[in-house]
Write a sequence for this structure.
């Protein structure tokens, strides 16, 4: 079902400062920057490793407002890991299989993720306290 | 510097229950179980993806006692992501490079990690609130 750890999503207060920190400290390259109004974040993807089915990234997330999901996370827990995403070949199929096992899905159908991907989130309480994202990369 | 996301370390109260949950929900295979007295944990590695330089895993961690680092983490934050680990070709070299950039190392020298690896931890406050581990896999 899983093809890779697609990305680690890290919530931060200052996207530009954290891009600089991560890029310089770990010698990583920024491969995408986006604003996702639906999710209330501006974000950057730093490439950790490339692969045939999709890459592995550090995703840095700055909330667009304090009452967005990432804004609330920061107020409650501070900066750090917000979610973990796994690459799947077909997100709708993975949602069906995982949902059939009793795990609650936070999305009824796939929605738009970073870099043209199709994504869905799982309820963290049903998977060990980890907010978990499924990612079908835009690349075949 | 980074070759892969090596693993996501997840703190849990009941290792056997969480192995069952993750293995069944995500169709993952347990490839190693260990007790690490030095770190005060018993743990399991579930393979997400294999690679030439090393695999990517979900690592489940149950504390051996409440006053261990993972025991204290659970008491404070509950179950969830405890740390994130990145694969490097040479952990001592990565420690030197990262330390030279002003990031505090929690280990003075590499120590023994899961499956024969050599590891070191970085101070989470210096890398965006994420407890970060460097892993040199036992495999070449």
């Amino acid at each position: 079902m899983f093809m890779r750890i697609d990305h680690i999503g890290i919530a931060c207060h200052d996207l530009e400062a954290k891009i600089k920190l991560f890029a310089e400290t770990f010698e990583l390259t920024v491969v995408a920057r986006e604003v996702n109004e639906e999710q209330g974040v501006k974000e950057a993807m730093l490439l950790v490793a490339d692969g045939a089915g999709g890459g592995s990234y550090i995703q840095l997330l700055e909330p667009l407002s304090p009452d967005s999901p990432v804004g609330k996370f920061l107020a409650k827990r501070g900066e750090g890991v917000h979610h973990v995403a796994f690459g799947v070949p077909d997100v709708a199929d993975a949602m069906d299989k995982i949902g059939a096992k009793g795990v609650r899905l936070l999305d009824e159908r796939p929605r738009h993720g970073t870099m043209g991907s199709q994504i869905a989130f799982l309820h963290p309480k049903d998977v060990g306290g980890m907010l978990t994202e499924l990612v079908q990369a835009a690349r075949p």
Remarks:
- The helical segments of chain B are 15-26, 69-77, 91-100.
